[in-house]
Write a structure and sequence with these properties.
The chain has 74 residues and is mostly helical. It has one domain (11-69): Winged helix-like DNA-binding domain superfamily/Winged helix DNA-binding domain (Arc Repressor Mutant, subunit A, Orthogonal Bundle), CATH 1.10.10.10. It contains four helices and no strands. It starts with 13 loop residues before the first helix and ends in a 5-residue tail after the last helix. 15% of the residues are buried.
């Protein structure tokens, strides 16, 4: 495999990233659930899983860390 073909593994799943992209748009858990056609519990699970991966204790810390890492854009 050539260096140009190497892609680092994404930290978040596609769905976790979608949830956080909506979260930074100031959407509520309910609004995110409706937009993605999933339950509010599933939204909370995605947020919780991402926070665990990042080793942070809150949604805002997770957003800051994801922005710092370049995983999210404002």
């Amino acid at each position: 495999m050539k260096d140009s073909e190497y892609k680092p593994k994404q930290l978040l799943t596609k769905r976790e990233k979608e949830v956080f992209e909506l979260l930074v748009q100031d959407k509520t858990t309910k609004e995110i659930a409706q937009e993605l056609f999933i339950s509010q519990k599933t939204v909370r699970n995605h947020i919780s899983n991402a926070m665990q991966k990042l080793g942070v204790k809150g949604r805002s810390q997770a957003v800051v860390e994801l922005l710092r890492m370049g995983e999210l854009k404002l």
